[in-house]
Amino acid sequence: MYTQALNAADPTTGDEAGPDMDRFTARIAAEEKIEPNDWMPEGYRKTLVRQISQHAHSEIVGMLPEGNWITRAPTLRRKAALLAKVQDEGGHGLYLYAAAETLGVSREELVDQLHSGKAKYSSIFNYPTLTWADIGAIGWLVDGAAIMNQIPLCRCSFGPYSRAMIRICKEESFHQRQGYELMSTLANGTPEQKAMAQDALNRWWWPSLMMFGPSDANSKHSAKSMAWKIKRFSNDDLRQKFVDATVPQGHFIGLEFPDPDLSYNEESGHWDFGAIDWDEFFRVVSGDGPCNRERLAARVKAHEDGAWVREAALAYSKKRSARAADAEIAMAGAAE
Ligand code: FAQ
Fold first, then answer.
1. Residues with CB under 6 A from ligand 1
2. Hey, what long-range contacts does 233-242 have (CB within 8 A, 24 or more apart)?
3. The model's pTM
C-alpha cells in the first residue's frame, strides 16, 4: 500500500506516475514478464482482465456452434476429431479464466458479466453453423484467425497469459489443420460437396476478418495495449497477415473468396481486399447478431443445469477439510 501511495494517477488520463511506474516501464522495455504479485498500473490490470476474460468467454461460447454438429458428424474419425476439438476449447477457457483470476477477479464475477450481457465475446460465434462444411470453415478460418492473433500473445508481457497462450496455440494449430483437411476433402469431392464448401467459405469469410477487431483508426485500446506489450501487432496488421496466409490456401483447393476486390498487389506483396461491413460488426458486437440471444441462453442454461455439480464439489471439499481438521485434533490429542 505504501508503494502504491507513491504513485499518483493523472485525473484525466488515469495514467500513473512515480517510482513504481518507472520500474514497471523499464521492465516492459526490457521484455521482462510481469507476474501477478508484481506492481502494475491499474489500467494495465483492467485491460488484461477485460481482454483475457473476453478471450475466455469466446472459447466457452465458441464450443456451441461446433458442438451442434458432434452428433451429426459423417464418420467416426470426424466425430472423434470434433469431440476432441470442442473439448480443447473448453480447456482453453479454463486456462484463461485461471489467468484472469490471478489479477484479483473471481471466476463467478466474470461468468456473471457474461451471463448478464455486460462482457463481450468474439463476434464470430454469433453466426449459425448451417451445414457440415461450416465445421471445416470454422477450423480453417476461425482457428486460423485465432492463431494469427494469438501467436504474438505468447510474447505478451503478462506472464500467466503468455504461458497459457503457448499451449493454446499448439492446440489451435491442430484445429486449423483438421478444418483445412475437411474443407479440402469436400472441395475435392462431388460437385454438391464442393458447392457446400464454397457456400461455407462465402458465409464465414467476412465474419472471420471481423474477428481481428475494429480498424486501427477505431481501435480504442490498441495504443496502450501495444505500449504495454500486451498486443504486439495492430488489428489491421494481423488481419492483413491472415488474408495473405489464407487466400493461397483457398485457391489451392479450388475455392473462390466472396470478395470482388480481392487481388494480389505486386508492389506491396500483399493481397488487397474489399471494405469490411463495420455496421454488421458493431451490430453483432452490441448483441444483435444472428445467434447472440441463442448463444447466451445456451450458456446460462448450461450454468444453471450444472449448479448441482458445483454444489456437490463444494460439499465434498468441505467434508474433506472437516475430516482433515478432525484427524489433526486427534493426532495432537494422541501426542499429548
Ligand atoms: N468481437 O480497441 P479494440 C477463438 C471489442 S478465440 C467482439 O480493438 P482490443 C478460439 C473489444 O473487446 C477468439 N468484440 O480492442 C476458438 C473492445 O471492447 P470494449 C477470441 C470485439 O482488445 C476457435 C472494443 O471492441 N480471441 O476464436 C471484437 O485492443 C474456434 C474495441 O476494440 C481473443 O479474444 C470482436 N471480434 O483488440 C474457439 C484474442 N474485436 O472496450 C472456439 C485476444 C474487438 O468495448 C472455436 N483478444 N472487440 O469492452 C485480442 O487480441 C483483442 O482483445 C482483440 C481486440 C484483437 C480481439
1. 50-51, 54-55, 58-59, 62, 89, 120, 122-123, 138, 142-143, 146, 149, 210-214, 219-222, 225, 231, 235, 285
2. 233/152, 236/212, 238/148, 238/149, 238/152, 238/212, 239/209, 239/212, 240/270, 240/271, 241/148, 242/144, 242/145, 242/148, 242/208, 242/209, 242/212
3. 0.93
